Each structure stands twice: as C-alpha cells, then as structure tokens.
Amino acid sequence: MSLPNPVDPPRVTLMGPGPSQTSESVLAALARPTLGHLDPRFLAIMDEIAQMLRQVFGTDNRTTLPISGTGSAGMETCVMNLVEPGDAVLVGVNGVFGGRLCEVASRAGGEVTRVEAPWGRAFSPEDFERAAAGRRFKVLCVVHAETSTGVLQDLSGLREVADRMGALLLVDTVTSLGGVPVELDRFGVDATYSGTQKCLSCPPGLSPVSFSDRAVDVIGARTSPVRSWYMDIGQLTRYWGGERAYHHTAPINMLYGLHEALRLCLVEGLPARFERHRLHARALAAGLGAMGLELPVPEAIRLPPLTLVKVGAEVDEAAVRRRLLTEHGMEIGGGLGDFKGKAWRIGLMGASSSRGNVEGCLSALAEALQHQGVASRGDGLAAAREVYASV
Amino acid sequence: MSLPNPVDPPRVTLMGPGPSQTSESVLAALARPTLGHLDPRFLAIMDEIAQMLRQVFGTDNRTTLPISGTGSAGMETCVMNLVEPGDAVLVGVNGVFGGRLCEVASRAGGEVTRVEAPWGRAFSPEDFERAAAGRRFKVLCVVHAETSTGVLQDLSGLREVADRMGALLLVDTVTSLGGVPVELDRFGVDATYSGTQKCLSCPPGLSPVSFSDRAVDVIGARTSPVRSWYMDIGQLTRYWGGERAYHHTAPINMLYGLHEALRLCLVEGLPARFERHRLHARALAAGLGAMGLELPVPEAIRLPPLTLVKVGAEVDEAAVRRRLLTEHGMEIGGGLGDFKGKAWRIGLMGASSSRGNVEGCLSALAEALQHQGVASRGDGLAAAREVYASV
Predict the structure, then answer these.
(1) Burial of B39 per CB tally in 10 Å (0-12, 13-18, 19+)
(2) Which CATH number fits domain B271-389: 1.10.10.10, 3.90.1150.10, 3.40.50.1980, 3.40.640.10?
(3) CB-nearest partner of A7 from B32, B39, B246
(4) What secondary structure letter does DSSP report for A81?
(5) Which residues of chain A have a CB within 8 Å of the CB of B250?
(6) Residues B306-330: what's their mean pLDDT?
(7) Whether B45 and A108 lie within 8 Å, measured CB to CB
(8) What is the pTM of this model?
(9) Among A199, B194, B238, B331, which is most exposed with the fewest C-beta within 10 angstroms?
C-alpha cells in the first residue's frame, strides 16, 4: 500500500444533524501544546470546564463533567450507572434516540417499558403517567431534543410525574445543550448527557454529563458494581473532583476545544445564543414554507437547532443532498427511521446558526430542486429576508 | 463566576508515562476543518486510518479500528466483547494494567483467575501454563508493555499456551504500539487495544483495537448481547466497514490527528522507529546508571519507551518532579502501586524519544538532585554521549 497523503479536508458548511461547524478559535485551541493530564495547569482547565458546563446546563450539580467519548458514551454512562439488573425503566420513544435508550437500558439489565409517540410528535406528562399505570420505576427517560426528528420535548411537569412513579428523571440533551435552554435544576432533572458536536460547535468526541445529588446517592447505594469501569461515575468523579485519583487519561486537546467552545457560549451569553437559534430557525422555516416545502413537526414543538423538511415523492432527496455537498460545499442530513428517504434534516446549531447559512441553504436547495426539474412554489430567500427585516 | 481566559498551555517536554509530545503536524491536523462523519471524504480518511493501523499493528485483521475513547475504553471494548458472564478468564498481573484487566473482566461477568508476578518482572509461558493447571479458559490476558513498571513482556510461546487452554489471546499494547514491534499476526494475538498518546504521539482520546477472525467468530457466537452498546464491536465494524451503518458520530478531528500520527510512523519506517526508541532508551539508561541511579527492571525485559528509575530514601521524589516541571519545563512520572513514592517513570515515546530529551532530562535530574543536596555519582550526560558516539 502506498502511503496516504496528509488529511486535507475542504471547508464544508455543516448544516446536518451534527457535527456543526467548528469555530476557528475552537480549532485553534485543539492545536495547542499537549499538557500532561496531571499537570496542575491542566487540572485548572478541567475545573474551569466543569464550572462552565454547570452554567450552560443550568445546574449546581457537583457531578458535572465531560465523558471521554461521544454522546452515545454519555447516554451509556447515565444508563449504566443508574440502572441495575432488574430495575424497571420507562422510556419515551418518538425517534431514534429514545429507541437507543431502550437498547442501552436493556443491555444494562433493565426491564424496559417503552412509551411510544409518533415520530415528529412530543409527549405530554400524562402519556408517561398513563404508561406507568401506577407502577413504580427506577428511571424515567426522555429525549429533550430528538435529533432524528427535530422535536423539542417540553420538560415541564415531568419531575412531578417521575416523583409519582418513584423515578429518577434522565434527559437526553445532546442536541439542545447550548442551543435551547436546558435548565436542569429548574426542571428537576437527575441525570443528563449531551454531545459537543451539536450546539456547542466543538468537534465530536466528548459527552458532557451531569448528575443530581439524588442520582449520586442512588448510584452510591447500588448493590452491584457499574458494569462499565470506563464509565463508572464514582471513579470519574474522584478523577474530576478534588482527589484527582488517576482513572483514565483525559483527552487533553479535545478538552482544550471544549473549554473554548463553552467560553464562546458564555461570551455570547446564553439568552442571546438561544434567541439567535430561534431567529435563524424562524427565517429558515419561513423560507422553506414559501418554497412550498412542508415541515412535519408542529411549530410549537419545533427544535430551533434542527428542522425536519418533508420531501415529496417527485424529488430524489439523496441526489439533492449530494448536489448540495459537491456543488455548494454544504451538508444537510437525510431522514432516519420513519422519515428515511422522505425528509431532510437541516441543522442550525451553534456556529452553524447564522443568516449566511440560512440564506445559502435556501438558495442552494432552490437550485438543486430546479436542477431536478422541480419548481419551488415561491421565493424562499425573500421570505427569510422578511423575517430578518422584522427584527 | 468570571469568565475563564482562553486556554494557553505552555509547551512542556513530556517525558512521563504518557501523553508524549504531540508532533507539530499532528497538532495542525487536529485543527483542520471538521467534515461530516458520513462525508465520503471523511469515510476515505477512516479507510486510510484502518489500513495504516493494520501496518503498525502488524496484522491483516479486517476488524482493526480506533475506539472513540481512551486506552481504557479499548481495554473495556476487548473484554466486554470477548467475555460473557461466567466465562473463565486468566489474567497476568505484574502491574496496574493487569490489575485493571481483572477488574474490567470481573465487571463483564467473567470468572477471573489472576496470575501474579512481582512488579518489574515479566511472565514466562510456563507461568500461565502452571496457573491454568489443565483447566480451560475463554481468554488469556497479558500486558505487552506495563506502563506502571516499564516491563516488556515477550509474547513468544503465549499463543501455544493459549491454545492448550482453549483460550483467545488478549494483549494490552497501549505503550508498545509504534514504539516496539507488536506484530499481532506473528504472535497469534486474537485481540488487542492500544492508546494514541504513547508511542504514536497523538493526543489521548482514541484507542486502536484489532480482533482476529477467530475472535470475531467467538463474539458472533455470543449467547448474550455485549453489555456495552457503545463498545459493541459488531456494530462498530458495520460502521467502519463497507456498510457505513450509523452507530455513533466518530471523533472527526481526533481522527485527523491519528491519521497524521500513523503517517509519521510509516514515513519514518517501523524498523527505524523501533531502533530510535531502543537507542535513546539505551543512552538514558547509561546516563542514569552513571549517575548512580538504579533501574529495577532487568535490561532484557526493559521497555524502551518507558524507564523505571528507583529513587533512594534520601530523595524527595515528588519535589524533584515538581522542580523539573516548574524550572525545566519537563514532565516525568512518579511510581504507581508497589513503586509509589519510590520511583520515577521516564518516557521516551514517539516524538518524545530524542537525543535532546535524553540529554535534557539527565541534566535536569542532576540539577534537581543537586538542589536537594544529593550528589550524583558520575556524569550522566557524558555516559549518554558515549552511547551516541558508539553508533
């Protein structure tokens, strides 16, 4: 085999379901010199990361840290620590990630009860209450932001429902953290995991998690060891906390990147950041609507960072995505599960959430559809600009 | 809380047990623009990584890929996939990482039998044969390069021993890959995990693993699902292999770094790279010996990338390490377990394995000892230079 050339990736406008575009200063942080993982200067960086994560998560939870793996590792960390063999787990499934929670909980030995909602719809607290039917559960699992559908789940009322079933409340915030308010403490969330490559606009590779003191107590009272040594939150806390007990070697340069990504969130200010995500999602929706494209998710539960777009049978949706990538240097995502081959997922996450991207995407989509001989109903760009003009 | 400043880590000469120094071109690769994880150009990069990994591992194993976590995640991946509840596992323990293998195997439900050797010593094939006492085992686990002691385990004869007990051969190559010959196929290794932050000189965050076809068959014949969804090698293979079935989002920028790190190995050439590691370790050992410092690991089993140095009771070993870090910008490691407070671990791994580092370290150690009023017996620098002059 001949030796490969050095990597030379082109700059792509990332508007899929993640990764989002990485900010220049985050890329630069990744390339700073590697420190030893026990160097006092690195330990200080870890402390700052944990403190900034608490702010972005909206929590005082001491047990707040990034897992050294991607979002799915964070999911598994939460589930593996909270669930012991035989534990009853109630999971809301309205997309891929609810389904994955069931799979992970089942492998952890949990007895899983699924509560289903149609893909593209959210749950009411009563849906869970009804499914529980008076039984007790160890954990109630809900996806805050379903990356497969672009549905935002309202967390109001879930704490009370969880309390009535004696459950801890576990929430997937992979695609919400840094893009929409998460506010763990306000909603009484006991455990959560997120990803870095969505609204934080850091490359994939880390999964911020947070556990309430109540969840930590439940983990401390386990009768069997956590099945994963790598994801054992007790040991991870002793490494990230004051003891600095060696566990594994932290992904140092990735953590530099996360540090900078969190800094950028706080420099912008969380309320301004959330408003930015809302504005550009609104402009995108207006443009897509004007073009005659349908958004299957009702506006009230639409996730600003991720918009699901229905694709008519007359359109070769994969060919449009390929054309966007090759001719426009722009990536959007395809549908998953119920929406496979029938929808696009357009991400406006973190650094990708910008007016330039909204207008660029609308204009590229119009061109690609026209290339297939599909006429747009109206002028998407003009409709988006109207939204911008109105603010 | 006030907003932290951007990370601004100083450039430290990393001569501990890992991370080693990251090459400039690897740092630059980390900072290249993020591609989508399903972008055809990224998939090509994944293929090149897998192919280069096979070369460095010395294997044709199809199932060769980096796990999206650090070395401990790779250990857990190997164990969790190979071990089902009730399986008998034989583990050689002569340092921290053998002990960790026991812990991980036990959490996976394995029935673990430990074979102990003193810290700082290696095993003979007969040690395992005797411990097995005619019983059959599912997996025989051996650490090729014990990061806690700097012992290199000869792999010769282990395949035959494993065969006689009906076992798969699992080998920890965290601190050997890229620094000493690994040659999986030659030694009949069935499963291995490594790390990126040792002799590959890429920052921590990925764990290259490789599984023989025989191991893949055994995993395929499991009667229970792998307890970890994140580390399920069957699913990971479908993502890394031709199917590209979405599993988790690969750590894109970290993989750019690994691609470049592997390229640097192959550009240098593996034989030259191994010889470089041997030469600088020899010079370091000569220098330390001349200074009157004792190396507890016998020369025949000494690991070139990592040298264990005994510290006399008259020396405050932690103060020496602190002084190296603050006054000399150089990191060396302390002892672990049996050697805690009684030894240093000096790494010469990957980019850190250089004449400048050997001479810088000997001279810094002499200064730091002198600062404590401890006289060196002789001139370490001169002894090291003699080694260099002789080649």
Answers:
(1) buried
(2) 3.90.1150.10
(3) B32
(4) H
(5) 70, 204
(6) 97
(7) no
(8) 0.98
(9) B238
